[in-house]
Known about the structure:
Elements: H1 5-8, H2 12-44, H3 60-64, E1 70-71, E2 74-75, H4 76-95, H5 109-138, H6 143-175, H7 178-187
Antiparallel strand pairs: 1-2
Amino acid sequence: MFVKPELALPFVPEEKKIARNLRVILFLSIIGMITATYLTYNHFKSDAESFCSISQTINCDIVNKSTYAELFGIPVAILGFLAYLALAVCCLLLLKCAELEKLHRKLGSRHIHWMIFFIALSGFGFSTWLSYVEWKIIMTWCPLCVLSYLLLAVILVLSIMNIEFDHRCQKNKRSMGPHGTYLVKKTGKVCEFC
C-alpha cells in the first residue's frame, strides 16, 4: 500500500522551499570553501600577493597575515573552510535524503536543519567580530573576508527559513490528525526534509 497523493499535498510547498534553500546554501558553501582555500594559501605563502591587495585600506594580505588571522595558532581561513565544509555536508545529507537513523537512531532531518543554523550563526558571529577588527583595529578591509561575511549572513537567513518551513510541516502533520499519522507511518517522515 502507498500513501495517497492528496495526503502529501499540504507539504509540497514547504518541501520545494526547503530544497531550494538547501541548494543555495550548498552553492554558497562551495564559494566559501574556495574563498577560504585561497585565503589559507596566501596565509602560509610569505611571498604571495593577493589579487585583492589594492591599497593600504583594501588589502587581503595585511588582514590575512595579521595577528588576528589566527586563533590558537590555527589560521581563521582553515576554520572557515571547515565551517563551510560542514554546511555543505549537512545540505548534501538532506538533499540526498540520507538515512540519518543509520548515523544515530534519534537523528532526524530537524536536527540537521538546526545544525546548519548553529554553524551559520557561529560563523556569522565570529565573522562579525573579525569585521569589527578589520574596521576599528587593523583599519584595513579584506574583500574576501567581507564576501565570507555576506555568504554567512545569507546562509543564516536561509537556515532560519528552513527551520520555519520544517515547523510548518510538523504543524500540518498534527493538524491532519489520523491522516498525518498514517502518512508518517507509511513514509517514516512528514515530508521529504522533515
